[in-house]
Every structure is written in C-alpha cells, then in structure tokens.
C-alpha cells in the first residue's frame, strides 16, 4: 500500500486582482514527505486548499495519481490548524465520521494508533489541545488516505506536545506510507520531518531542497546545516533590502 | 471574615467525623437549603397572606387561603378543574405543535437556502410586525369562537420565536465545521444531522422556551375573550359571580403550568447541551 503521487503544472490562483499563486510547478512522488514553508501570506495554505479542491484554481492543472482534480477526493485527507472536532459528538463519534463506511471498528483502531482510545467517550471540550489534534489525526487516518495534507496542524501546540506529535506523524507515515504535504513556518520542523523542503516565496517556488538525512532524525550538525541553509535563503532578500 | 473561617473549619471537622454517611446527609441538607432559597419569595408571600387573613384585614375582594383550598378541593371533586385543565392543555399543545413545527421547518429552509429566505423573509417580517392581538377581531369574525380561532392565535404567536431562533442558529454555525464536513464527504442529510442541527439546537431551544411562554399568554387572552371552556373561561365566568377564589386559583394554575413547562424545556436543553461545559453547571 502506497500513497498517491501529486503533480502540479502551471498552477495559478487569483483572488480578484491579486495573484496568490504564480505558475507553480511541483511534482511529489508516491509516499514522499514534503514540507511547504514560507512566510505568512506566501500562498502555501492556498496551494494546499487547491490540492484538496477546497479552493477553485484560476489556471493550470493538478493531478493526483495521474487524474485531474475536479472534486473533493475521499483518498485525500486534510488536517487543519484547529482540530475542528464536532463539540456535540464524542471523540469516537467524531472519528467515525472520517471513515467512508462510517465504521466504528475502524474508528477504534484509528484511535488506538494515535494512543487515544481511553478518551473515546469523552467530549472534545474535555481534551487538551494536543489530544484534540490527535483525535483529528485519527479522523483523517481512519479512511486510510493516500495523501495527507497538513495545514500547520502543530502550530497551536506547546513545544513538548509538538515534539510528540511530530514523532507520531512520522511513525504513522512510515507505517502507512501515504504521501504527506505539510505546511509549516517552522524550519526545524520541516527539516526534522520532510524528505524535501519546498520554499514558497510570493506565490512562486523559491527553493526545492532534498533533506538527505537518515531516519530517525536527530538534531545535530547536519540538521543544523539544512536549517541554516533554508533560513539564510528565506532571510536573504530582507537583508539585501535592509543594507 | 473570622466567622466564616471558623464555620469552614467546623464544617471540615464535622465532615471528618461524620464520614461518607454524613457527607450524603450534608448533600441532602444543601439540596433542601437550595430548594428553600428558590421558593423563598413565594413562601414569604404565602405566609404574609395567611397572616393578613387571620388578622381579618382581608375584605371580600381577597379570598383567604382556606377558602382557596376548599374551592380547589371542590373543583377537583366535581371534575370542573380536570375538564377545563384538559381543554386548555390540549389547546396549548396543539397550537404550539402547529406553530412550532411550522416555524422550525421554515427556519431550517430559510436558514439553509438563500433563495427561500429571499422569497419568504419580507412576508414573514410583515406578519410579524402586526401585533398578535390586533389580528384577534379578524380571526374571530372569520373563524368564530370555536377551537380553530384559538389554535390559530396560539400557532401564530408560537411560530415567530421558534422560526427566528432556528434561522439565526443555522446562520451562525461555524463555517469551519461545515468545511470539515465537506472535505470528509458528508452527504446533505449527514451534514444536517451531524453539523447543522446540533449546531443550531441551543438557539432553537431558546426560541422554544420563548414560544412556550407565549403559548400560555395568548391562551389566557383567547380563553378570556372567546371560549366556553378552559382555565381562562373558568376565571372569566367566575368574575361574573365575583368568585374571587376561583379567579385566584386560575392565576395560580397558569403560573404553575408556565413554570412547569419552562422547567421541562430547561431540563431538556441541559440534556441536549451536555457536551458544552457551560451547561453542565447548576
């Protein structure tokens, strides 16, 4: 079982007169883990929403496993910045909604995979932020998606919870082998998790860098090298204009 | 200050001595205290009334407590009370069922579909602007003083609170949750069942409570003006013969019916909203 490939050709997106995405070309292999980074407003979330068909595109083409995206695809799951659990349903009932067949057994299994089965009958309001995000992750995984789109799902969590979630996402990715596109503005998170880091700048791809580090990854000189390289690239234009 | 600290320590030590059995007794005591607090004003008024009647301050215009009690027993025994109560209850709930369900269904339609809202909003707002009691002459001429006119009046006044609150509840549902439902491939019915209806329920229940209150209000008016049975008729009829005890008894029954139905609505809301921490207290 492997994830789907993703192919983006000449993608443009306009909101009125503002061009948010300008002629994006990007190919993501099956099962690849790609981190999409960039400053706020660079278009990274828009790109993710375009892939999931939550936003219509102005021009170009997006293909998932060779097929053009026209509608929301049940094999593509999306994890938002906020968990978006239904507050009037228990954790388990929320996860069941993620299953295309509304299977309770699959939902229980998904909750086990994120280590949250003991909270199955709790209301979302009784969970911590990290637990809520884990429940949302279980809901995304219960249908065994081929592509997982993560829109800064960890940005609202505290540092320790975030590290745990990063490990959990990596472990689940290695086990299920789906394709992941992670939007983040945390460069070290991108280097820690991704096979490849793509930098979006002003609606264009500025940098596309393979992270050639072995897994499990540790924070050392090599990861620091990648982090510096990417950070320098991001900060370069700002420094130039400051001089 | 010192006093409250003292009583607090006394309470703690008493709890220790009494153990778990004492604890449950304390909860019981607390519950009784709460009940006393909630009913304190009616109880004080009742005692004051009894005192007034015992000292002979009350004239013929005010029934005494024992007169009221004897009348109540008499009306229960000869079946008058049960009969009128039944008639009033059937009117109230049929009217509420008609007006409430119409309001609920139209509120859902206008809340979800802009086209329906565009068509219906203006006429509904126009009808809403006419005071309910101003329609009374028209209804009486068209439908006479039979059951229909009373049901129409109740249905008309219970329609608006439920309609407006259902509409508002649906319009104010979190867009993010709807987007989540969309991406998880929920069908229209699943969207309604899982997201739209539960999201609007607290607002709908506010409308329902308001409608319940309006039901009793309009029922009194309708039964006072045009009826041959019901609690309102009982009071109007009693006025003719200056039977103050029956008039007061009717008021008491209306008050009890109103607060009882409100209590049921509040309990139902709490049960439906138990996922929300704000509804779990008290």
TrEMBL record, chain A:
Keyword terms: ATP-binding, Cell membrane, Hydrolase, Membrane, Nucleotide-binding, Translocase, Transport
The ABC transporter domain, residue ranges: 6-227
Enzymatic class: hydrolase
EC number(s) per entry: 3.6.3.-
Pfam family, one: ABC_tran
GO molecular function: ATP binding; hydrolase activity
PANTHER family: ALIPHATIC SULFONATES IMPORT ATP-BINDING PROTEIN SSUB, TAURINE IMPORT ATP-BINDING PROTEIN-RELATED
Name recorded for this polypeptide: Sulfonate transport system ATP-binding protein
Organism: Pectinatus haikarae
Lineage: Bacteria, Bacillati, Bacillota, Negativicutes, Selenomonadales
């Amino acid at each position: 079982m492997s994830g789907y490939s993703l192919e983006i050709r000449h993608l443009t997106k306009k909101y009125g007169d503002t061009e948010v995405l300008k002629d994006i070309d990007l190919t993501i292999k099956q099962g690849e883990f790609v981190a999409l980074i960039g400053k706020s407003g660079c278009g990274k979330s828009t790109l993710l929403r375009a892939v999931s068909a939550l936003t219509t595109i102005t021009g170009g083409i997006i293909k998932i496993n060779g097929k053009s995206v026209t509608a929301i695809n049940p094999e593509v799951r999306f994890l938002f910045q906020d968990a978006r659990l239904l507050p009037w349903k228990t954790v388990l009932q929320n996860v069941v909604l993620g299953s295309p067949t509304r299977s309770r057994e699959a939902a229980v299994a998904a909750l086990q995979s994120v280590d949250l089965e003991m909270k199955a009958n709790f209301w979302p309001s009784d969970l911590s932020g990290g637990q809520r995000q884990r429940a949302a992750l279980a809901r995304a995984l219960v249908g065994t998606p081929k592509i997982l789109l993560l829109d800064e799902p960890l940005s609202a969590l505290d540092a320790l919870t975030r590290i745990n979630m990063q490990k959990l996402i990596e472990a689940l990715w290695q086990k299920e082998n789906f394709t992941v596109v992670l939007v983040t503005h945390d460069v070290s998170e991108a280097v820690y998790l991704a096979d490849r880091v793509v930098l979006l700048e002003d609606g264009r791809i500025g940098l596309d860098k393979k992270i050639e580090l072995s897994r499990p990854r540790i924070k050392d000189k090599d990861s620091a090298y990648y982090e510096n390289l990417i950070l320098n690239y991001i900060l370069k234009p700002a420094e130039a204009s400051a001089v | 200050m010192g006093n409250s600290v003292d009583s607090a320590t006394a309470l703690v030590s008493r709890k220790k001595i009494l153990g778990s059995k004492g604890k449950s007794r304390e909860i019981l005591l607390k519950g009784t205290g709460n009940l006393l607090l909630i009913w304190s004003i009616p109880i004080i008024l009742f005692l004051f009334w009894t005192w007034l009647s015992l000292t002979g301050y009350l004239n013929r215009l005010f029934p005494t407590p024992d007169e009221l009690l004897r009348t109540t027993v008499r009306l229960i025994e000869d079946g008058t009370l049960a009969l009128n109560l039944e008639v009033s209850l059937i009117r109230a709930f049929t009217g509420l069922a008609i007006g409430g369900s119409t309001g609920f269904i139209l509120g859902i339609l206008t809340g979800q579909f802009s086209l329906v809202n565009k068509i219906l909003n203006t006429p509904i707002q126009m009808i809403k602007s006419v005071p309910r009691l101003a329609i009374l002459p028209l209804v009486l001429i068209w439908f006479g003083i039979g059951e229909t006119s009373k049901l129409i009046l109740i249905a008309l006044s219970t329609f608006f609170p439920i309609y407006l609150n259902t509409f508002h509840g649906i319009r104010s549902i979190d867009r993010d949750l709807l987007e989540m439902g969309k991406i998880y491939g929920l069908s229209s019915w699943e969207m309604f069942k899982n997201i739209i209806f539960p999201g609007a329920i607290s607002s709908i229940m506010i409308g329902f409570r308001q409608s319940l209150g309006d039901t009793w209000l309009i029922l009194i008016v309708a039964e006072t003006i045009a009826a041959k049975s019901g609690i309102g008729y009982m009071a109007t009829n009693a006025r003719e013969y200056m039977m103050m005890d029956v008039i007061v008894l009717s008021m008491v029954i209306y008050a009890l019916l109103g607060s009882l139905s409100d209590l049921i609505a509040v309990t139902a809301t709490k049960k439906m909203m138990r996922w929300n921490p704000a509804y779990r207290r008290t």
